[in-house]
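Below is how a single chain appears once it has passed through the pipeline. First comes the sequence as given, then the structure the pipeline wrote out for it. We keep one example in the README because the format questions we get most often are answered faster by looking than by reading.
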Amino acid sequence: LNSCDLTEKSCDIVASALQSSNSPLRDLDLSYNNLGDSGVELLCAGLMSPNCRLQRLDISYNNLGDSGVELLCAGLRSPNCKLQRLGLNSCKLTEKSCNIVASALQSSDSPLRDLDLSYNNLGDSGVELLCAGLMSPNCKLQ
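Resulting structure:
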């Protein structure tokens, strides 16, 4: 579903599908859309559902910013989240996002194994924060 001009309303529908007990969805590409914070919040409701089987989510090239990543990381900390690969390429993330992501990586509940943060404005201090998360014994990134 990349480049489909999806918005918050679409995220509500996708979140409902993720929460369905018979959803076969394992891989979802929502890159190049207009999801926004409210859309990400709705997606997180789907990710936190015990029925969600999603393992890969690409939301690159959406204007999420730090607040959107904060919402997303709340979903990653859920014991029900099965997400192993997450694409956040070119999402207007900053150093603040790095602190939030590092915290999620340190969570024992986060199953994340692959994370793409390329083409964001993380800066040196942001990368230092990420490294702290990577050094956690709970971090599963490979």
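The chain has one domain: 8-134.

See the next section for the split statistics.
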